[in-house]
Write a sequence for this structure.
């Protein structure tokens, strides 16, 4: 009878223990090697009380309890292997502490040139982890340490696998809808089906299976109508709806999204009384998502703008400003007061290294920052190992402002790249390496106040990666100066420095751009080709600069300082070997630098 009572008590104990363990979140005191578990304490108290009453444990009971202990040990071991969070809780370790320790072990093993794969080096990892925990005053067995390490990495692998499977599913959606509906019609529907949060996921998966085997547009449309619970007319309207959740490339794009108006046909249908509740819900939610996406971007964009103007308080633009905030592949927001003008415009020279490709992809604003990086794309310049490229800013220049001056929109891992800057493309200043996980560059330690630079040179420093060399989408001068160039043929007759009547309209256009800066310095430089005497060319170029300056100053007023230079044929932008190149060299340039405190 006593034996059965024991089993009942033990059963109750197990039930209570299981109930307590399921809570899993209660705080417990840190364990050390001398601690005795609560289950052991309760068990000893229970049987010591019975033994005091004269009861003796028989062989059968002893064997049953040994089996029970073995089972409990197995359950604990299994739990530790399957859910490392339970063991973390038991040892009073936070996830952050645990991961930081693993990172430390990784760095140490890399420094020792040893394997760093926890699956093949599980014992070594466990020993190192156990040792560090001991130093921190946390005792654990080697088995517990190994279970923790392996369970953590198994969990991380599952995350990657889940992400990969989701990408594969999105590809299947894309493939079927593009095939059966066409690119224009598939956009919103493809995006909506790829977003599992929008609808019941079980129904979504079933619909995806139907779509995967559909062989015609009719089958595809029927599956979509059934999934959304909408009519043929409503499906046709959704096919005209643009994507909602595409990443935004810039602040101006976010503003445009926030001002989005639904197509007229959809608006008419929604107010006709024919629209189903499902259709109304889909459209309403899509518009809410558009608004949220716009608002979220604008919040971060305004932070970036505020930070720039806090450092450069005199650089304030008017309502017609061209400023814009861009996002890079990593989600960093970059404010550029000159907007699209800020980016490198021309390739002066290139010598792409091993695996280099698509040099033109580096020019202009970033066009891949919202895309998934596939390593090789015609819109990205793959510099290649030891590759080099020289870029020119033709409508702006690089200048020193407060804070960073240059931003390199690099895709994938930021790989060490050497940077040089130049005023004329011949004499170079070494700025140093772009490295350390940031693409921001401050040129202040290397330049004189008021200096402007129109050329940069990037050289890859040989590093090992999937695609060797830096992968660059765009390069931007963050502040800098606006560079405005006019062909002398538009302004003057040959050999003359008297402005044509039509020239005033062209100068008026320049003035509207200059007004983006409420104050600053306007440097007006005259240039000629090499035809004629150098002294005559020098005088002609200066006289032309004076003629332009007089009109500009009259139109703008006294908020600007003016500098006038004539360079003759000393600063050509093209070889004087063809009529076309000579025409390029006959020019007047206006460099507008805002006042910076």
């Amino acid at each position: 009878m006593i034996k059965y009572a024991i089993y009942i008590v033990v059963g109750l104990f197990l039930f209570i223990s299981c109930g307590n363990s399921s809570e899993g979140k209660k705080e417990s005191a840190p364990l050390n090697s001398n601690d005795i578990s609560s289950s052991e304490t309760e068990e000893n108290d229970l049987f010591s009380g019975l033994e005091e009453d004269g009861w003796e444990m028989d062989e059968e009971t002893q064997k049953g309890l040994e089996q029970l202990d073995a089972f409990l040990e197995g359950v604990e071991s299994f739990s530790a292997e399957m859910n490392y969070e339970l063991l973390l809780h038991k040892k009073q370790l936070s996830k952050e502490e645990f991961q930081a320790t693993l990172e430390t072990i990784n760095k140490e093993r890399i420094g020792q040139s040893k394997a760093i794969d926890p699956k093949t080096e599980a014992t070594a990892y466990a020993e190192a982890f156990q040792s560090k925990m001991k130093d921190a005053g946390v005792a654990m067995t080697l088995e517990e340490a190994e279970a923790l390490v392996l369970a953590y990495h198994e969990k991380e692998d599952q995350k990657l696998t889940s992400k990969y499977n989701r990408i594969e599913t999105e590809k299947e959606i894309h493939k079927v809808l593009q095939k059966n509906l066409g690119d224009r019609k598939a956009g919103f529907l493809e995006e909506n089906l790829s977003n599992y949060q929008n609808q019941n996921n079980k129904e979504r998966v079933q619909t995806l299976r139907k779509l995967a085997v559909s062989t015609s547009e009719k089958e595809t449309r029927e599956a979509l109508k059934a999934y959304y619970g909408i009519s043929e007319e409503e499906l046709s309207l959704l096919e005209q709806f643009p994507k909602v959740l595409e990443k935004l490339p810039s602040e101006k794009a976010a503003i445009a999204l926030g001002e989005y108006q639904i197509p007229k046909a959809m608006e008419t249908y929604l107010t006709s009384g024919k629209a189903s509740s499902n259709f109304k819900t889909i459209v309403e939610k899509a518009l809410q998502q558009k608004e949220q996406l716009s608002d979220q971007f604008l919040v971060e964009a305004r932070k970036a703008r505020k930070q720039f103007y806090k450092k450069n308080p005199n650089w304030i633009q008017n309502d017609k400003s061209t400023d814009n905030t861009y996002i890079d592949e990593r989600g960093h927001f970059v404010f550029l007061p000159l907007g699209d003008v800020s980016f490198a415009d021309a390739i002066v020279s290139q010598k792409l290294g091993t695996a280099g490709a698509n040099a033109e992809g580096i020019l202009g604003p970033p066009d891949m920052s919202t895309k998934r990086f596939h390593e090789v794309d015609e819109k990205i310049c793959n510099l290649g190992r030891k590759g080099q490229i020289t870029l020119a800013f033709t409508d702006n220049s690089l200048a020193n402002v407060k804070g960073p001056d240059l931003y390199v929109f690099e895709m994938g891992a930021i790989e060490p790249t050497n940077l040089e800057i130049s005023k004329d493309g011949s004499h170079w200043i070494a700025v140093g390496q772009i490295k350390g996980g940031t693409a921001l560059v401050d040129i202040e330690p290397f330049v004189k106040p008021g200096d402007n630079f129109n050329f940069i040179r990037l050289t890859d420093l040989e590093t090992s990666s999937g695609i060797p060399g830096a992968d660059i989408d765009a390069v931007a001068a963050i502040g800098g100066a606006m560079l405005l160039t006019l062909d002398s043929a538009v302004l003057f007759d040959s050999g003359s420095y008297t402005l044509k009547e039509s020239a005033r309209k062209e100068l008026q256009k320049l003035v509207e751009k200059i007004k983006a800066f409420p104050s600053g310095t306007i440097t007006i430089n005259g240039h000629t080709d090499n035809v004629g005497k150098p002294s005559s060319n020098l005088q002609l170029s200066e006289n032309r600069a004076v003629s332009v300056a007089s009109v500009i100053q009259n139109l703008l007023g006294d908020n600007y300082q003016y500098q006038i230079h004539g360079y003759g044929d000393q600063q050509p932008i093209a070889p004087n070997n063809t009529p076309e190149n000579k025409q390029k060299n006959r020019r007047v340039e206006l460099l507008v630098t805002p006042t910076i405190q």
